[in-house]
Every structure is written in structure tokens, then in C-alpha cells.
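Bug: C-alpha cell stream looks shifted between consecutive jobs. Job 1:
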Amino acid sequence: MICRFTVFYTTLLLSSSFFSAYADEIANATTSINSLTVGAVTQVAPSYSGSNHSKLSMLPVIQAHHGEFFFDSVKGIGYDLQGPAGFYIEQTIGYDLGRADINSEWRDGDNQLKGLGTIKSTVNTSLTIGYQTTDWLAAEAMMTAPLTDSQGARYQTTFKGGLWQNTNNTISFEADLLFGSHTYMNTFYGVNSQQSQKSAFREYTAAGGMYAQSAYIDWTHKLTEHWGTDWSVGYTYLNDKAADSPIVNQRNDISTIFVITYTF
């Protein structure tokens, strides 16, 4: 069982890790070097990282592969190179929707954040270096940095692999450690003096470093030669660097995604 998974869980915030994890599962289910997959995804997730409110989102899915190059409606455009001895590298240029301080159907946001202002949407780049340790286990390190705004970088170490597989089904897992620079942490979890005056939140300065752990279980099912489904459940635990922020109402986040796809 080769576990070179490419899951959806980016850049849609902390649920962006979840989406990124899912995108990889769809890519893994597509064995052709040249392929086109379309579909629809339904997600139930917190309205922003640390929120005690959940929301339902529905989005289209498009994935196209041509040799080492790909386009992904979640991850962006990029290339995926296989190296010697199980090593591989992936680089993408994508788009992060940022965060609103009001309820939003299409990006992170909640009325609870009123007064904090909007975190701008950004074009970003991600670099992933991975190693396929066995047929069923891979390890990765990823860095994501914005190209159009100074929001800081985030980092992720990942172990992922296959738990069980037959002709039409694959059950896999992913476990992540999430890190953020000082700027990133204060963009998404900090409250400066100006924001504190305009909102109901006390000032808070977040330190950089590891701020969360996450884990996902994914089930990919092949319905026919072209049709398939993917169901994922994810859990994220916020460490003190993030959880101590006044905007965080709960440190335990649970998300679920269901996807139906058609591969040409």
C-alpha cells in the first residue's frame, strides 16, 4: 500500500490543514499521471480557529494533473517531484482567504470578532519535503509563507499513511504538529492595543512556536470507474500559545468533510 497521500486541511485557516489533507486523498485516489477530477465538498467546521460556533460550507472541487504539474482549487498550482530513495518535494502557489470579523459563508469569520478587523486575503507559497519511509507511512515537513502581506509564516510536520485498503476502499490517517512565527501567531491569535479598544477583548501577545496538534481519519471509496466519495474527520487541539488568546473560546476543534468526485 503506497501512502503518498495528497490531502485537501490549506488554506482555509486551521481548517485549512483539514482541507489540505482531504485534497491529498483525492489526488492519491487518482492514479493517472494526466487526469481531471471535479466534484463538490461539504464541510462542517468551526467558524474560525478557536471558535465555539460551527458552520456548514459547500464548495466546488477541481483537480487537474499533467505529469509533475497540477492545479488544485484548494491548494493552488504547483509541481510534485519524486526523488531518489523515497524522497519527494512539492511546491505550490495558492490563495488564503484570511478572516472576517463578521459571520461569513465563504471564509473564516464570526460576529464574536467584531472590532478586530479583517485579516487580508493573501497569495502564498508552500514548500513540502517528504520521505516515504515504508509502503504505508510517509513523513513531511511543510512551510507556508504569504507573498502579498506580512502575516508571518506557518510550519507543519506530518506523519501520514494507510491503515487498510482493498479494491474500492482506502482508510488512511494523518497526524500533524503545527507551528507559527511570532507574526503569524499575533495575526491570527493576538489582540493589539488598537484592536482591544475597538472590541471586547483584552490585549494579548502570542509567542511563536508550536501552537496546535491535529489528527485526521479519512475513508476514500470508489463507487465506479469514474465516481468516488471521500469522508474525513479531523481533530485539532490548541496549545497554550493559541488557547490563552481571548478570542479562543474552546481549544478542541472537530471538523468533518464529505466529498463526491468524478474523474475523467
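Job 2, same session, no restart:
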Amino acid sequence: MVSLVVLLGLLAGAAAIVLRQPHGPASWVVAGLLLLAAIPALRLTGRAAARYTLRRQVIALTQQHLTPLLRRRAQLVTPDPYGKPQFGRWEKEIDYFIRQHVEPSITRAERKALTRHHDRIAALIADRVEAALEARPAPHGFSDAMTPSAYEAFCADQLRLAGWTARTTLQSRDQGVDVIAEKDRVRIVLQCKLYTRPVGNKSVQEAAAARAHEDADFAIVVSNNRFTPAAEQLAATNGVLLLHHRDLPGIDAVLASRQ
């Protein structure tokens, strides 16, 4: 971008020098040609500026929505039967984020830059989320091989580490509640689902019922996996939070964003 600005300055300076020379109409012709030569450079300068401001805006929006982006990354990137991570759903989520949160926040020139450089912008978002994910190590003690009861205890431990008083319930009398936790007069109930498939409607329904039964402030379904679209819709209707267990260390910020 700097080199383009320098080029424009040189062309404008050359045109000014030519116009000061007493060569009559020929000077005007040469000056006109020099200015015409500057037009492509002006366009390139404008594109470079739009690309630069677009990048800054995308970085700011990614940072603003980093917590839900990390959650979606954890929910959507799952291994195939051979253990290889599958990124297809996560890439679609990034496209959705760009459409719903980036495009409405940028200028017309930046939208044109986005159209030209969509793959680079998507890669920028993915890279920043990956960097944040690496900076937040996986919660200690989790394993895909643990039992459902062990997963409930693991979730309760994560809440205790975040300063909550948490306890697991008796499975025979849990009324749809796996973990009950309290902190600063806030009471939450959790359904904890260690699944190899997406979590469906039933868990959301149970969490909503448990919130009423336990007179809780928040109902949460926590899982190592993603949620079905139907479960997401039902959760939105009933005010149930759908979280990944990686969210539990930062549960205070998650709840604060919902108040």
C-alpha cells in the first residue's frame, strides 16, 4: 500500500512539473496521460485500504465473539470413525458468522474486499480461534472413554474450580438434573451428556423442567458433542443454555452475557 501511495505521488508530481513547462498543448497532453496512468493506482490504493480495514474489523469481531466461536469450534469439529478431525461443519459455521456478524458491520468497499478475499478472511477467523483454543488447554481429567457418571463428576469439578459450590445428584432421584451448583445467590442446574452423537430435544426438555423443579436461575445442557438443530431451536425458545464442557471454567462470563 505504501508503494502505491509513493507511485501516486510521483505521477502527480510529474504531471505538475509538466504543466509548469512552457510547451503549450503538448504539456497538457502529457499531463493528462500521466493522470490517466494514476487511475489504476488509485483503484489499487482504495482496494488495499478496504482490505486493511476489513481485516482489522474481522479481528475485532472475532475477539468480541471469541467465547461462542470457541464453543462452536469444540462442538462441531469431531473425529471420523478413523480418528481424523472433520472440519466441514466448522467451516460452514465460519461462513454463517461472516454472513450474520461481519457483513452487517462493514462498509460497501469492505464488502467488495470480502467478496474478493472470502477464503482468506475465513482462514483468518479460523486461525485466531485455533490460537485461542491452544492458549486454553483442555480441562484436566476429561476423557471420551469416561462413564456418564464420571462425566457428571468432571463437570461438577470444573464448576468448583470456577468458585461454585457444586454437587452431583442421585441418579435414581435426579428429576432431570445431573449437577446443581450455586454461587453468589445464583443457582444453576446441569444436564451432562457424554455422547458420541449430537444431543437432541429430550435433554433440553429435561433441563427446562429441572430449572422449574429446583427453582434455579439457569438451565444448562453440557456435552462433549454438538446439538441437533431442533435442540438448538427448543433451547432458544425455553432459555436453556447449550454448552461444551470447555465453557465451564468461564461459566461466570457466559451467565453474565445472558443477564
